[in-house]
Amino acid sequence: MTEVINRIVAAAPPDGHHVTFQRLDGASAMTLTQLHEAAERLARGLRGIGVGAGDRIGILASNCPEWILLDLAALRLKAVTCGFEPGKFAPDEALFERYQLAVLFTDRPAPGAPGAPGPARQLAEVADLTGSAGTAPPLPVPEYKPSDITTIKFTSGSTGEPKGLAATVGSIDSSINAVQEMFGHGGADNLFIFLPLSLLQQRYWIYSALRFGHDVTVSTYEAAFPALRRAGATVVMGVPAFYESARKHIESRARRMAGGAAPSDTALRAAARELFGDRMRYLWTGSAPARPSMLRFFADAGMPIYEGYGLNETCIVAKNHPGAHREGSVGQVLPGKKVLFDADGLISVYSDYPVNWRYEYAAPGESERVFAPDGTVRTGDIGYLDEDGFLFIRGRADDVIVLDNGKNILVRPLEEFLKASAAIDECVVLCPGQSRLVAVVSPASDPPDTAAITARVAAANAAFGPDERIGDLVIATERFSVGNGMLTSQFKPRRSRIADTYLTSREMVGNGS
Predict the structure, then answer these.
(1) Which of 68, 149, 332, 463 falls between 20 and 30 A from 8, CA-CA?
(2) What pTM was estimated for this model as a whole?
(3) Residue 160 in 3-state DSSP?
(4) Packing angle between helix 65-77 and helix 200-208, nearest 10 degrees?
(5) What DSSP state is assigned to residue 141?
(6) Alpha helix (H) ranges present in 390-510?
(7) Rounded to an integer, what distance in angstroms lies between the CA atom of residue 326 and that of residue 288?
(8) What is the pLDDT of residues 42-69, one digit of tens each?
């Protein structure tokens, strides 16, 4: 296995490549060499305030240059980063105590004034620490073993308090190597990332740039669309909800180009290039199921989306890519991973280089429930491998509804059928009384197209069996979003919160029958 982390802390990156930071108000850039050198100076500055190997550096901030510099400086010190997602964590004393932080950098209001000797520091102080290295002696070059820890990463938190997981170097190196083998990112590439850097996988692409030599552009979600075209990106690392939004932009633009008529394939391709730029090689997605209609749309637009599968606890398990792709699957299993099935199709994943063997932070018994002693992860997903080794995910075991007649209903196929309607942005199927299915729909428009939504429910009731019949329909009063708490930061629906919000006192629209 090619070393990634040891290489980027010990050697300068390949020449001629840049990291660019896109904001709504403009952009800034530096060469990878400048990034590498600044991280070295920052590491010396951090050492000057007493941060060393094994100490935990908390980062609670939106995507920005300082985030990346702190992460790379921590690697140089062999310190451990804790990336906290803004809005989910608060920079208070409880955060320091729970996660045993040596220091916290934040762009949020925090206890203590800027420059105070306490552990909470404003993100602006990163520049001061970088400049304070002066004539400080060089740092020894750390050497990482595969079992060493670089970061504490957290679940997206669809239910309860986020679980914390310490990620090993071996799991990071093996994942980045597998991606490089499949996609061959090189000197002409520019990878565009906009999801929170608190998600470790988003930092993979920074490490990849430093190791293999390519450009990378970092944006925030809010700036992503305006930044895309001027970025000159060749790859976008996104989630299905982002591409669904992009599809609506493209279709709207193409209709305007066609004078309100149904747009041609040529107009759709032109509108897609206008949004994404004309250098796009492929689009990456995962973290949640992608609609087949959306995948076909972008393939027809000349921008194939490659869907994959993985969890925080496993890293990347399977991935479609240009050399091996099958519609409806999440790709073939990566080298170093083994996918195991029980009699009910429940998936467990064995890794040659596990992320870890337990949670660092979780409720009692949770580690034993998820991890086997050898690091094998019980995923809670249901699926199968076809004859060519492509993995198909049918849904989550938690999403199996057991009716009072004993029938097991897997809701994902039903939800995907409903979401194929242009009138439905997102939906979940619930069963509060174990006898009658309820579809809670997030409409795609305001006001909602109630007739189209009701018609789609009627079509589902005609297409599926009697046990899968939707008895009640609830149209949400506002679209599900991260901001209103109905979606996670990776745009997965929070089922329990949706149920609490819309099933306690609901107004039924009808069942489409």
Answers:
(1) 332
(2) 0.84
(3) coil
(4) 80
(5) P
(6) 411-419, 450-463, 495-502
(7) 17
(8) 999 999 999 999 999 999 999 999 999 9
